Amino acid sequence: MRFDPSSTVYVAGHRGLAGSALVRALQRRGFTDIIGRSSRDLDLRDRHSVFEFFASTTPDVVILAAARVGGIIANSTAPVDFLSENLRIQVNVLDAAAAFGVERVLFLGSSCIYPKFAPQPIREDALLTGPLESTNDAYAVAKIAGIMQVQATRRQYGLPWISAMPTNLYGPNDNFSDDNSHLLPAMIRRYESARRGAAPIVTNWGTGTPRRELLHVDDMAEACMRLLEHYDGPRQVNIGTGVDHSIAEIASIVADAVGYDGAVEWDTTKPDGTPRKLLDVSTIHELGWRPMITLHEGVAQVVEWYRGVHSTTDASPAGSELSDVGV
Description:
single chain; 13 strands; disordered C terminus
């Protein structure tokens, strides 16, 4: 398996949350031939364009971190978009990688692939053992299809392709839109806006009781490097901290990080989503990886980054919703 600094590595979604962290991790290891294309330059939904790109670049390694992503409201109101676009992105990139003989591929999925009521912490073998969370089942099915294609490619062509399933990610280059962002960036935007006086009160969705595991994206990238260097197996590998917090606890951490001490209310008419989603991370631990960034440290870093990027406005997301935003 070729994965060393002389390799040509294509990171699909290199400007997004996950992709940009993977680029940073590769650069720390001395990789210099790192390829990336924005969605404006390469539409991964266009099969012909994807095959032309692979023909002209011939990468040795492909990391597929490009996806259409969003929070509960985006997933529940546009399920066809999340299913169709993610399937096309994945099939096009993985088919092209196989056609051009790319030996090493890492496919990034999401912990939402697991059943809504899977035993906690969730082991890798819980996949396909029960019904999915209805608010993001279309996205989850697309990601499951990606895992299946990786496994099928291993069986049919004998290639050492692998899949990784990160827990909920956060970090720089995240999507901070209040309409389609994930939990933590939406909270940071909301609390920071209230601190500046733009709102008299912070309103969070749901009851605050569901529990979520959060992982800094730079820790995720280091785990992926460990997998590319040391793992060759058909089963997807969970990446997480092994620790979760209630959404109310996470909100408190965000409030402390931004310095907000005002009123907070919970809109219980809004959905909670999956009650708990904690990953079993035994496999990645056995490979020698541990997260290094605590949640308090990570949230404080992201707040600082957010203020630097959005210092004068509650601006729209850092990246496009399609292809440039990682998982």
